[in-house]
Write a structure and sequence with these properties.
- This is Saccharopine dehydrogenase (NAD+, L-glutamate forming).
- One of its GO terms (cellular component) is plasma membrane.
- InterPro entries: NAD(P)-bd_dom_sf (IPR036291), Saccharopine_DH-like_oxidrdct (IPR051276), Sacchrp_dh_NADP-bd (IPR005097).
- By secondary structure, this protein is of the alpha/beta class.
- It contains 15 helices and 15 strands.
- It has two domains: about 170 residues, 3-Layer(aba) Sandwich (Rossmann fold), CATH 3.40.50.720; about 200 residues.
- Strand 2, helix 2 and strand 3 form a beta-alpha-beta unit.
- The protein is globular.
């Protein structure tokens, strides 16, 4: 039935910064057979976004434009019912995300986003996972720099270790780049909602079944020196370890007892201290409404790093995995993490759900659980490095 829908893919948010880059990526790299459309709340901005795509590929002059607003559930229902896959870059997701998740879960439509907001993901599990399982929709969050390199990087590492023994993996992230207004707003919003985030996590834990007869954990590490990489490691409480743990719960390849720790890697200890103090200061300021409003007003939606700034940006995540008496060190690396590579990751994930031969899954699923090797192969072909440094 879903094959009869007019579109393979609808991109929601193409008038924003990351959505615009995702549309550009699709215009350059999507196969000719892709039947796709752009969706957004402002028809004039949508038309301008399409004009930009026509400069990349004149055949896109007739690319359909769908008007939809997150405050209008009927418009989202129409989008969800018209597509096999919907990818959205409309954030902060905790404010704008749920109506589209609900529409996709109800319509049996595959849904992808690039959220890094744990509260949103946990709430969507509690409210929409069961309905998506019933309709067959795959709800795949965190398909950007949060959390594709970490989720697929651990998957790539684990597959090189025996699956019948306990496995431990440590991930060390380094990145250089600037952020967009959308990322800035989403991060400040998440910092101001630590109570809501804990409550959402508790509600999820109370109803989510654990993996049958296996143990999977994501545990905080400690600040310390990693001699092997000549760097300092600082525990990084992003959404990534949660995504990795859920992938480990979903796939037997992670073995009978899996443990993951997630770190930021830094060259110098003073950088660690300055980053910690700076973050603590911002987290304090966003708890107070007037300073939060002032901080949120510093950047306007649609702004982001220039092409030159993005060209200088990079990321590298190293993983050290041990299990069954073996040790493997791997690396995932690429260019501008937040935007060029996030656009690539989201677009390739959407094409993967639309066209690839994938395991049967439904409900809220991680990138690895939904797409695994098919997505890994796509990302490698698209220029993201996955390599084994030592085994
Ligand atoms: N995980 C990652 O690695 C990663 C990387 C990049 C971005 N992100 C996330 O992606 C999100 C977008 O970031 P961005 O920099 O692209 O933000 P942005 O430039 O501000 O774009 C926001 C988009 O949301 C749309 N929008 C806002 N309210 C809407 C509504 N009521 N109905 C329909 N559309 C609405 C805007 O439409 P208009 O143009 O009409 O205003 C715009 O298209 C953020 O949550 C950010 O954190 C995550």
């Amino acid at each position: 039935m879903r094959a009869d829908r007019p579109y393979d893919l609808v991109l929601f948010g193409a008038t924003g910064f990351t959505g615009g880059l995702t549309a550009d990526y699709l215009a350059r790299h999507a196969p000719d057979r892709l039947r796709w459309a752009l969706a957004g709340r402002n028809p004039d901005k949508l038309a301008a976004a399409r004009d930009r795509l026509v400069a990349i590929d004149p055949a896109l002059a007739d690319l359909p434009l769908l008007t939809a607003d997150v405050t209008d559930p009927a418009s989202l229902r129409a989008v969800a019912e018209s597509a096999r896959v919907v990818a959205t870059t409309v954030g902060p997701y905790v404010h704008h995300g749920e109506p589209l998740v609900a529409a996709c879960a109800a319509a049996g439509t595959d849904y992808l986003d690039i959220t890094g907001e744990p509260e949103f993901v946990d709430r969507m599990y509690v409210r929409h996972h069961a309905e998506a399982v019933r309709t067959g929709a795959r709800l795949v969050h965190a398909c950007g720099f949060d959390s594709i390199p970490h989720d697929l990087g651990v998957w790539y590492t684990v597959k090189q270790l025996p699956a019948d023994a306990p496995i431990a993996v440590d991930g060390y992230v380094r990145a250089g780049g600037r952020f967009s207004a959308g990322t800035y707003h989403s991060a400040l919003t998440a910092f101001s909602r630590t109570g809501e985030t804990s409550r959402a996590a508790r509600a999820r834990r109370a109803m989510e079944p654990g993996p049958d007869g296996r143990r999977v954990r994501a545990v905080p590490g400690r600040v310390g020196r990693v001699r092997e990489f000549d760097q300092w490691a600082v525990p990084l409480p992003t959404i990534d370890p949660q995504v990795v743990r859920r992938s480990a719960a979903a796939r037997p390849e992670y073995g009978p007892d899996f443990r993951y720790r997630h770190f930021a890697a830094m060259k110098r200890l003073p950088t660690v201290l300055v980053a910690g103090v700076g973050l603590a200061g911002v987290m304090g300021l966003v708890k107070v409404a007037p300073t939060r409003r002032w901080l949120l007003g510093r950047l306007a939606s649609g702004q982001g790093p220039t092409a030159e700034q993005r060209a200088r940006s990079w990321f590298r995540v190293r993983f050290v995995g041990t299990g069954g008496g073996q040790r493997v060190v791997t690396e995932v690396a690429g260019g501008d993490p937040g935007y060029d590579e996030t656009a690539k990751m989201l677009a390739e994930s959407a094409l993967c759900l639309a066209f690839d031969d994938l395991p049967e899954t439904a409900g809220q699923v991680t990138p690895v659980a939904a797409m695994g090797d098919a997505l890994l192969d796509r990302l490698v072909r698209a220029g993201i490095t996955f390599r084994t440094l030592s085994a």
